[in-house]
Amino acid sequence: MTTIIRLVALAGAMLLSLNAISEDFPNRPITMLIGFTAGGSTDVQGQVLAEIMAEQLGQPVNVVHFPGQGSSLAAAMLAESRDQGYVFQYGLSLPFVLTPLTSPTSYDYESFRFVAGLTLHQSALVTAGDSLFASLEDLIEYARETGELSYATQTVQDRILMEAIARQEGIRLNIVPTSGGSEMAPLVISGEVALGYSGGTHSGFTDSGEMRVLAALTRERLADYPDVPTVSELGYPHDLHAFRVLVTPADTPDHHIEILASAARAATRDERFVAVAEDVTRMPVVYIPEPELDAVFEQQVSEHEQMLRE
């Protein structure tokens, strides 16, 4: 009986210890995964976000770049993490919502918790500033005449969308894969490719005239390019409306989510993050909590399934 009492007491002490560790979150450094190369718009935002969150959490937030397949490799790594919030990913929502529907992945939408949305993605189709194409229609017509359109892609998602446009217009795509905006930009600016997908990198090149935005891939026109039409306005039925989100594995406890969400919300109110998001990468700052994101993403999964059926 004495042995049983001791074992029960020991188990209770261990449980209390584990609870204390959880309540003390975070008590060690945190890792922020970014699924693209350094220098792109996700990295530019993520570096400042990591700095502010470190101040809020009282622990270092170390940025680790893990590029590949439009950040899907980083998402696969995150899904396998058992660190319960000590590792999170910052980046585009599409790899979590759309990619599992289009390619074999080791994860699906249910593998994650979406802590918060922080910026509204401003993706676009871009060309060189000195190109002869003033509009996407001009470029499509040129592609019809030459029989081919060279296109710099970054993600599975934008490639699928562009392939749908190419099929609709009866043109052939010459796909040039890149791992982020820092690789896409020189290809477009030099004219090595006629068209490129930009998740926000174009904002650093349009004022100088090195790039021109031909179409918005969002549901509404881009905040800083209100004269540029959306792909929907141009007669294409699909878009890549998305957010930059903070994501953790599905088993992250509610208490950890609340703490991370509070730090992320503080970042959206910090002038350093607002400046880099809206003035540098030109993406409107928002704060969308987990319940609202879940509702939006469930609807998007349904819409993407319809697109793929078509």
Textual characterization of the structure:
The chain is α/β, with parallel strands linked by helices. It folds into two domains: 2-121 and 242-309, D-Maltodextrin-Binding Protein, domain 2; 124-216, D-Maltodextrin-Binding Protein, domain 2. The protein has helices at 2-23, 41-57, 72-80, 94-97, 99-102, 136-146, 156-169, 181-190, 254-268, 271-280, 290-309; strands at residues 30-34, 61-65, 87-92, 112-120, 124-128, 149-153, 173-177, 195-198, 211-216, 243-249, 285-289. The strands form two sheets. The protein has a six-stranded mixed sheet with strand order 2-1-3-10-4-11. Strand 1 (30-34), helix 2 and strand 2 (61-65) form a beta-alpha-beta unit. It is globular, with a radius of gyration of 22 Å. Residues 1-21 have low confidence and may be disordered.
Q: How are the elements arranged and paired?
A:
Layout: H1 2-23, E1 30-34, H2 41-57, E2 61-65, H3 72-80, E3 87-92, H4 94-97, H5 99-102, E4 112-120, E5 124-128, H6 136-146, E6 149-153, H7 156-169, E7 173-177, H8 181-190, E8 195-198, E9 211-216, E10 243-249, H9 254-268, H10 271-280, E11 285-289, H11 290-309
Parallel strand pairs: 1-2, 1-3, 6-7, 6-8
Antiparallel strand pairs: 3-10, 4-10, 4-11, 5-8, 5-9
Helix pairs in contact: 2-9, 2-10
Write a concise synopsis of the structure shown.
The protein is of the alpha/beta class and 310 residues long. Helix content is 44%, strand content 20%. Helix 2 crosses helix 9 and helix 2 (41-57) runs antiparallel to helix 10 (271-280).
